[in-house]
Amino acid sequence: MVIVARESQHRPISSWPKAHQPREKLRLQGANSLSDAELLAIFLRAGVKGKSAVSLAQDLLTQFQGIQGLVNANTEDICKCFGMGPSKWAQIQAAYELVRRCLQESLCAGAVFSSLLQVREFLQAKIGRLPHEVFLCLYLDSSNRLIECQELFRGSIDRTAIYPREIIKESLARNASSLIVVHNHPGGNPLPSPQDELITKDLQEALSWVDIELLDHCIVAGHGFFSFSDAGLLNRL
């Protein structure tokens, strides 16, 4: 396999061998064949003087320590980078939002528990990057299909007030058969606190009185994920 020399990556992409140009490579070999920088270059569309779009993309990924850091960056951070501006920041955010909506659409179209990884990716995309704590309810029907994903509570950086009565009311209003509750830890540690365990126990018990099953309580952090169900904690609480 022929590799484009590192020094040649700074030249305009139009001067590269056809098979190595990101759009052509995607067409011929599929999206999986592209590096993160090549995929990002397609969204950036053009480089700057002395840098191809791929070289510019690689600089951004290095500066922001990967894709997650890049999509979390605000307009001011992006505009400080050579060759970047509000329009390119908007392109990156739009691409990220399309992925998030695609994941949510997929969840609505099929049984949630047929793809745990898909659920995790959706939750990471939805709340993993938030600087404040939120509490979500995923209401499911009898076939484990998503009825609605609702943000029910919002708190400070380290505390959210959870009210089981409100959760039950919202679940009954949607005729939900089961429920997944989710909250994020902005501090980055996804492991449950004693308070997390207590609210899970209280909620599980309260839902049982109205014949609604608590399928899971998930905790999302920027680079971590915890599932009470996967850890075998639901039946032990």
UniProtKB/TrEMBL annotation:
Coiled coil: none annotated. It comes from the Bacteria. The keyword Protein biosynthesis does not apply. One of its GO terms (molecular function) is metal ion binding. InterPro entries: MPN, RadC_JAB, RuvA_2-like, UPF0758, UPF0758_N. It holds the Pfam family UPF0758_N. Keywords: Hydrolase, Metal-binding, Metalloprotease, Protease, Zinc. Residues 112-234 form the MPN domain. One of its GO terms (biological process) is proteolysis. Belongs to the UPF0758 family. PANTHER family: DNA REPAIR PROTEIN RADC, UPF0758 PROTEIN YEES-RELATED. This is DNA repair protein RadC. It comes from Polynucleobacter sp. UK-FUSCHL-C3.
